[in-house]
Design a protein that fits this description.
Elements lengths: L2 H18 L8 E5 L5 H5 L8 E4 L2 H11 L4 E4 L8 H4 L3 E7 L2 H13 L4 E6 L16 H7 L6 E7 L8 H19 L6 E7 L6 H6 L4 E4 L1 H4 L5
Parallel strand pairs: 1-2, 1-8, 2-3, 3-4, 4-5, 5-6, 6-7
InterPro entries: Ala_racemase_N, PLP-binding_barrel, PyrdxlP_homeostasis
Protein name: Pyridoxal phosphate homeostasis protein
GO molecular function: pyridoxal phosphate binding
Length: 229
């Protein structure tokens, strides 16, 4: 199937899940994950009103930025190495993968020195998988309290990845855990924090993510097909 045919099917499926969950369509954003996808195929999604794309690597953002910057806003959804921060500044709308205090500090410092600001999401390792980075749930409140020290990097929510498993209960528990954490932290007052985004749900688990409160879906393969990384 073509990108356009895939998107028609996907958008219909997302709308159906939103209706079943009793949510509003404008509550859920589809972020097209364009890792390894060439520029012309990315441009095919524009006619569907999609203007935000997610990339995993700084190098790919650099390679695609000039050709796509007039039509798309970039999100950084992969791990960011501190030595690549400068290459990213000014090119992204949102970073989903703030997974350590050292990265937060380095990014804020670099933003301040360039007189720039950026929004980001804390990556939370709800399931405590050793293979995944991110803050554990019981570390998040302390991190949010420390955000008052930083003036150029602003926290707008959380991101997580569920375990890759056929066990729907495990996936649901992960997403529900992040939603409950967001609700608990939103009831408190932190400077430089506005918890409005939950980035969770990918090609294989986006339906459960919608049911459990996600408002940013990171979907690539269901749009562009399976890719060899």
């Amino acid at each position: 199937m073509s990108v356009k045919e895939n998107l028609i099917d996907l958008l219909e499926s997302i709308d159906k899940e939103i209706d079943l969950a009793g949510r509003k369509k404008d509550e859920v954003k589809l972020l097209a994950v364009t890792k390894t996808v060439d520029i012309n195929r990315i441009k095919d999604i524009k006619e569907f009103g999609l203007h935000e794309i997610g990339e995993n690597k700084v190098q790919e953002i650099e390679e695609k930025y000039d050709a796509l910057k007039d039509d798309f806003e970039f999100h950084m959804i992969g791990s960011l190495q501190k030595n690549k921060i400068n290459k990213l500044l000014g090119k992204i709308k949102l970073i989903h993968s703030l997974d350590s205090l050292s990265l937060i500090e380095a990014l804020d410092k670099r933003l301040a020195s360039n007189n720039m600001e950026l929004d980001g999401l804390l990556q939370v390792n709800i399931s405590k998988e050793e293979s995944k980075s991110g803050f554990y749930k019981d570390e998040v409140e302390e991190v949010l309290e420390k955000m008052q020290k930083y003036k150029n990097l602003h926290i707008l929510g959380f991101m997580t990845m569920a375990p890759f498993t056929e066990d729907e209960a495990v996936v649901r528990s992960t997403f529900r855990g992040l939603y409950e954490l967001k609700e608990k932290m939103a009831s408190k007052k932190f400077d430089n924090v506005n918890l409005k985004y939950l980035s969770m749900g990918m090609t294989h688990d986006y339906k459960i993510a919608i049911q459990e409160g996600s408002n940013i879906l990171r979907i690539g393969s269901k749009i562009f097909g399976e890719r060899n990384y």
